[in-house]
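Q: My labmate handed me this sequence with no annotations at all. I'd like to see what the chain might look like in three dimensions before we decide whether it's worth expressing. Could you predict it?
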Amino acid sequence: MKVIKNYLYNVGYQVLAIIVPLITSAYVSRVLRPEGVGANAFTNSIIQYFILIASMGIGYYGNRQIAYVRENRKKMAKTFWEIQIVKTIMTLVAYIAFEIFLMFYTRQSDYMWAQSINLIAVAFDISWFYEGIEDFKVTVLKNSFVKIVSMIAIFLLIKNPSDVTLYIIVLAVSTLLGNLTLWPNIRRDLPKINVKSLNPWPHFLPMLELFIPQIATQVYVQLNKTMLGGMVSETSSGYYQYSDNLVKLILALVTATGTVMLPHVANAVSKGSIKQVNAMLYKSFDFVSAVAYPMMFGIAAISLTLAPKYYGPGYEPVGKAMMIESIVILMIAWSNAIGVQYLLPLNRVKQFTASVTVGAIVNIILNIPLINLWGLNGAMWSTVISEFAVTLYQLFVVRHLLSYKALFKGSWKYFVSGLIMFLGVFWMNRNLKDSWLMMAVEVLVGVVIYAILVLILRAPIVYEARDLVIQKLRNRG
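A: Here is what I predict for the chain of 477 residues:
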């Protein structure tokens, strides 16, 4: 039950973290216009490379290491401060590198300096510690409050197309404040430690191992926006960003299982329970498949209407981009389950690194010809094929460790249910009245169709849900 609670907390925050920008983006897209939105997306894609240096794989590594030692409070405190020292040093290195970069890159300097607040915020991000001890409530409640305050600030302060710099500052400061709110709890959650006993450097190389897959991942997360801004226009970067925002909202419901399961599985690994680890993965993989299929088909079915209706006139290209990008929901759901929930807890970092490196290489190779041919849509197809390559490689890596039959036991049932749902909802979306009320009806119809078909086909998720309800009733009794 603890895993389910943590999943719901994490889903809640992940959704809020994307819903707040989504709520504000409907307003901001009209105030700042595609040019201002594109300028933010393009400059943010650049600062993300420096944030990558500062983060240095600490999210996954810190989460896992804390989970390994959380039964021993002194070891946990020592591990936390050693990792945090490395992170602070790397943030300083990244900021110096950023200042050197600005000596040569003189375009949009106001935007870039505003974006640098995001880099400072990295040093104070200790969410990995609370994920490691499986205390998601603290991070969710405090960060949720800050996100809501930032949303209010955007509506109060952003009034005209010249407010791009102010918009960037509001977003960045909200991230910084969200990270700072976690620090008061550290005095309560960790015992005092002798500073002389700290030795941060043994953590450096393992972090570096996880830094490599983060670099590779960032290539096909940020490089597309950077290349679109350079090869096509900054407005195209904005279109890509807005498509990505809506798709990532859906993905948050799926990938939240990875953040929750990583420390849980890592703790099981530290106790030598490999059979339990495999059993957890089969259940988790089936769950993400059951959720990812309808989300992929659902967003594809309504995307052509949703994007221009939500963002306003001038954002029609976002709809087609979303329809293409929806495919990554399933690919990332699977690669998140195998990579984050299985390979990382088992310390198979090399295989995980290789998988995302393959994706990055595929992305780089395809980006130039596809962007030249189809612009924004070409970048989207490059992203989809890259994510497919990552998933395929990870499935190849675990071929002797896991049973494909157990992994994909119910997959065809979710696929058939999702496809039939898509056909019905897509027809409604293209032929019935274009309104918010009708779109809500389409979503509701899609949910009902999928749920009925999953029940008829007796997919594994049905039995899992039944067993969970029975267990809960027994616990109450």
